[in-house]
Design a protein that fits this description.
This protein is mainly α. Helices cover 72% and strands 0% of the residues. α1 packs across α2 (22-49).
Length: 60
């Protein structure tokens, strides 16, 4: 689909760095990492706490 090589990725990173600055970029990365971590945790907790889809309850 997209053929992005190393030079293109470097240019994209430099543009983002110029737009947001180094400190703000670190804050964005930390926030994104914690959001992904929370999302994975909630999916993991939901899988273990919910009813199993493999064995549905038998009708009475």
């Amino acid at each position: 689909m997209f053929n992005l090589g190393m030079p293109e990725l470097i240019v994209i990173f430099l543009v983002i760095l110029l737009l947001f600055g180094g400190g703000r970029l670190v804050d964005i990365a930390k926030g994104l990492g914690s959001a992904i971590r929370e999302f994975k945790k909630s999916i993991k907790d939901d899988d273990h706490s919910g009813p199993s889809q493999k064995n549905p309850p038998e009708p009475k």
